[in-house]
Amino acid sequence: MKKAVPLFLVLFLPLTAYSQKTWADESASAGMFLKAPVKIVEETYCGKRIADPYRYMENLKDPLVQQWLRAQAEHARSVIENIPGRSSLIEKMQDFDSRKSSKVYNLVITDTDRYFYLKRTPSEETGKLYYRDGYTGNETLLFDPSGMANNSGKYVISNISPTDDGSKVAVSAAADGSEDDIVLIMNVETRTLYPEKIDRCRFASPSWLPDGSAFLYNRLQKSEKHAIDIQKNSKVYLHTVGSAPSADREIFSSTTNPEMNIRPEDIPFVHYDKDSKHLYAFVQNVDRRLTVYYAPVSELARRKIAWKPLLKTEDNIHDFAVTEKDLYLYTPEKAPNFKVLKTSLLQPDINHAEIIIPEAPDAVLTSFRLTSNGIFYTLSKNGVKVEFYRKGFDRKKAKKIKLPFAAGTIHLSSKGFMFPDVWVVISGWSSDYKRYRYDDTSHSFIYETLSSPAEYPEYEDLVVKEVMVKSHDGVQVPLSLVYKKGLKKNGGNPVLFYGYGAYGKSLKPFFSPSFLLWAHKGGILAVTHVRGGGELGDAWHKAGMKSTKPNTWKDLISSAEYVINKNYSSPAHIAINSASAGGILVGKAMTERPDLFAAVIPQVGTMNPLRGEETPNGPVNAPEFGTVKDSLECLALIEMDPYLSIREGNDYPAALVTAGINDPRVIAWQPAKFAARLQAASASTKPVLFYTDFESGHGIGDTKTKQFKTLADVLSFAFWQTGHKEFQSKEQ
Known about the structure:
Layout: E1 26-27, E2 32-33, E3 41-45, E4 48-52, H1 63-80, H2 86-98, E5 103-109, E6 114-120, E7 128-133, E8 140-143, E9 155-162, E10 168-175, E11 182-187, E12 192-193, E13 207-208, E14 214-219, E15 235-240, E16 249-252, E17 267-273, E18 278-284, E19 292-296, E20 308-311, E21 319-322, E22 326-331, E23 339-344, E24 354-357, E25 364-371, E26 374-381, E27 385-391, E28 399-401, E29 409-414, E30 422-428, E31 431-439, E32 444-447, E33 462-470, E34 476-484, E35 495-498, H3 517-520, E36 524-528, H4 538-542, H5 550-565, E37 574-579, H6 582-592, E38 599-603, H7 622-625, H8 631-639, H9 642-645, E39 654-660, H10 669-681, E40 688-693, H11 704-721
Parallel strand pairs: 35-36, 35-37, 37-38, 38-39, 39-40
Antiparallel strand pairs: 1-2, 3-4, 5-6, 6-7, 7-8, 9-10, 10-11, 11-12, 13-14, 14-15, 15-16, 17-18, 18-19, 19-20, 21-22, 22-23, 23-24, 25-26, 26-27, 27-28, 29-30, 30-31, 31-32, 33-34, 34-36
Helix pairs in contact: 2-11, 5-6
């Protein structure tokens, strides 16, 4: 069981003719200057007086803010779309896409072996919902989200939730990247939709009851789009198929269960597990340590469910799985590389639980799945090399299973302890995703990839080099370098750094033909596995959060210094890119060492974390970054804030800063404030472009073409600023 949670030409300027100090260019359509006015607001945080010159931008409804956002977007587009070489990148992405007759993703397999999945062909912008019976069954189209298009935008399917027998499926879809899902319900046999539509399901992942007559789901309160309280006090309801959502019964919330002290920012969710016949109630935020209550499914017949505590935050359990009587626990408690414990489900005793999979001394236990034949699990070394193991339910030692090819990433799935099936999806930096079913009887891998195959001869000569870099404090940090064979160490190679470093999430090796265009064009793709991620276990995460957050950007700085010292590149040829929480990573690296980089590209980034709790998605993130209500954590927020770190008169690198007006995760004013301050402060003549997408959000739910264009923006801007000859204007 997994925790339920959880980028034409209006005005042309010569690409060299920039001055950040004199933004005198006027947008013809917006009728206003690009320079943002300064309106200082001073406020005291944890004893420090903070001056905020662009606080007014936090009101996205302000007509002046709207005008500035649109003028900036228009200007940014006029520059980006005229970068030589950008259109050829998009054409190559389209070429790669055309090589697969179909792409299949979001696969869900029911107990009856019915496959539900999204499929997109080269001529389509987004996936449609299909099903088939068994891997070799005939394919049937169930639902095309384009039929939902209306004045509110273009819809993309975000979640598929079938019943255990596959007779019904709940389909969640959202418009223009808003992540504000509408849940529809379909009868699979007749391919007809039930009349009801359930909106305000931002955290939609419906959990069906045993007979498929009803499901449990989380729903937001009614609120305006950017209201600061939009995510607060959400509730879990029980919906009966065919009935009006207004009649749904409230099952789990701060109202129904005041004794649980559920905070307004916490996200409640209830999951029904068929194997144990229990309901599991989660109280969620970004803290990886689970808080869970449980009750027999029969409790639904009662007016108020008699929940019993199963897992407390202090138990330090990050994931769990169940049988009809046993509870398996995934934990870093006294085991930073993680271990799996076993105890009784009905009478759990975590302190005396049996160790089923011990902690590995040199690798992180990254996932485990139960089957009828035993437990399958994965071990990852430095976040880039994964091994596959099987352990029986006896006390014998686990056995390592040889994979079809060396893997950087394994996604592991099964149907649970009642079935023998286990699947692995394997990939690497230069290896496309392949899906196999492992036959435990014949000890063989059976190829069961649903997407059509494709060849990428462009990447047959790629070199993947995994190195360890000494950071500022002597800690060794993994760094992945990907480039074409024969690359010369002449100090002039374009390097694109990509990192993240938050929530204990690992940047695992992934295969993206479009992203690899950086290497195909002669550049070096550098993925830095900085602290704050989970590549080296739980301790790695804790070493890059709250007061230890500086390690995150200092690891990136050390990685950049490494490629310079090894003569791979030099500061004039290094760009750094990240998204979302990675905005802290690249924003702080740039403000601390502006001399080290040619360009910084934060996409929909967290750029003003001190003000994070004043955003809809901010309070739920306090366990990761901190809260202004705690004096030490408040000081940490100030230190990690890229917006507050900008200093007047510094020669800052070029920047491409982006935002999505529909973004529910990082509100658009965070990157807006950062861009405005950087434009005003930088003494260099390098461009600082700010682009707000008014038809997108956090990048989740974007159409194929929008994804291509967004990536082409990043790559072409980075190539332009790092000096690649194909991306320079004639004037240069």
